[in-house]
Write a structure and sequence with these properties.
Largest sheet: 5 strands, antiparallel
Number of domains: 3
Number of strands: 14
CATH architecture of the largest domain: 3-Layer(aba) Sandwich
Bound molecules: adenosine-5'-triphosphate, magnesium ion
Radius of gyration: 35 Å
Helix content: 40-55%
CATH superfamily of the largest domain: P-loop containing nucleotide triphosphate hydrolases
Strand order of the largest sheet: 2-1-5-4-3
Structural class: alpha/beta
Number of helices: 21
Distance between the termini: 63 Å
Shape: elongated
Strand content: 15-25%
CATH class of the largest domain: Alpha Beta
Amino acid sequence: MSKPARLPRDAASVLKLAARSMFDLFSSMSEGMLLVDRAGRVVWINDSYKRFLPALGFARPEDFVGRPVEQVVPNTLMRHVIDTGKPILVDLLTNKAGTFVVSRIPLRDESGEVIGALGMVLFDHPETTLQPLIAKFARLQSDLDEARRELAAQRRTKYTFASFIGSSPAALEVKRQARRAAQTESTVLLLGETGTGKELLAHAIHAASARAAGAFVGVNLAAVPETLLEAEFFGVAPGAYTGAERKGRDGKFKLADRGTLFLDEAGDMPLALQGKLLRVLQEQEVEPLGSNRVIKVDVRVIAATSRDLKALVAEGRFREDLYYRLSVLPIRLPALRERLGDLEALAESLLESIAARTGMPQRELEPSALAALAAHRWPGNIRELRNALEQAAMLTDSARLSAEDFAQVLPAPAAPAGERQPGAPRPLPQLIAELERSSIDSALAATGGNKVSAAKLLGISRATLYEKLAGRK
Ligand SMILES: Nc1ncnc2c1ncn2[C@@H]1O[C@H](COP(=O)(O)OP(=O)(O)OP(=O)(O)O)[C@@H](O)[C@H]1O
Ligand SMILES: [Mg+2]
């Protein structure tokens, strides 16, 4: 704000005119203007300011002008602006006249000394004038809060060993092995059918390990298109590509540095990637695409697959060296039908989480329902159990679920299509959803949980199958 130095003559006069025009513009555009002197006394108000006077308790401008500003404008900060010499460009002022968006600017003389301050009322009734802006701000703020919460929730591990329900010998053995794995740095290989809790256990191992404070980063090898996998794993150097990737991006290995990388559906890894992954696991360093530098990483790997890796090795579709590298600590998760003793405890815990999620009261199971559940084969294991419970709960209001409530939900033991009773008509969307669900379940059962083959059987892409399975959780 100091005096402009050595300006040509005409420039100085242009500046003066500019200041004048700005002043006139603000005076006419704003809702009101007032000037105070260095002593903080009101020395001038413009015409539009006059309409605030009655609400401030003054009938005539003469009563207002000449008084110390804080005496006539409650809550004003004009004195503060004079004292500090710093403007307050946007502020909300509330007093008995209402709430206003105001701006306060110190005024200086030629030598830069503060000689007073200019106050402007930019908007009165900000609640209406600024409504769209305030609403937008509130929306952005709540989106931001939401995103922060989600991020924090993702960083925090979702599951601990306590979330792995089951006290059958098979379940206890799995937990024992997993606890032991958590105490080591070795690669863990989780084997088991779809829905048996591999992902849950991977989270629990991470949470109980020395890396719990680090990130848990998951990559689903079957869900990421093959062409993108390398970039996904190793990252992209800045400038390696044009377009969206121009700035480069960190790969999952980098993101999992000092944490755990979860390789889900590891059996679906393309051969070309297998070799590269093996190198990274051995060297603990990655080379982002389009870069000639390697980055050191410190990553613990937990891999999971529902496929028979040994068979894949025998078929030449999975590298033997990688298989040995991954299966340092293999843990086989039992299928639900192998641990039916846990059925009741599992159902109980799932019903509790369903109730918490839907906000509906928690249901109980009649003995008949338990018997019906125990008779089912559960190709989709605990995920399928969860879905069955959720659907049965949606179909009835009764507090206790009986075998009947599950009759519609669980696919009936195979009966030749021709002999099936037509039964009462039911809503088409429900029938379609059931047909879809049972087709997917039988495809998965037929392929031993191999989703790529199941998707082929069903005539849908594996990404679509993943979407549908993810939608079930
Ligand atoms: N022992 C368990 N106790 C409680 N819930 C479980 C247990 N095992 C699995 N679940 C639940 O079942 C669902 C499926 O588990 P998860 O995703 O871990 O299975 P998965 O083995 O990774 O399956 P997929 O091979 O299809 O990816 C999840 O909702 C999970 O919380
Ligand atoms: Mg999984």
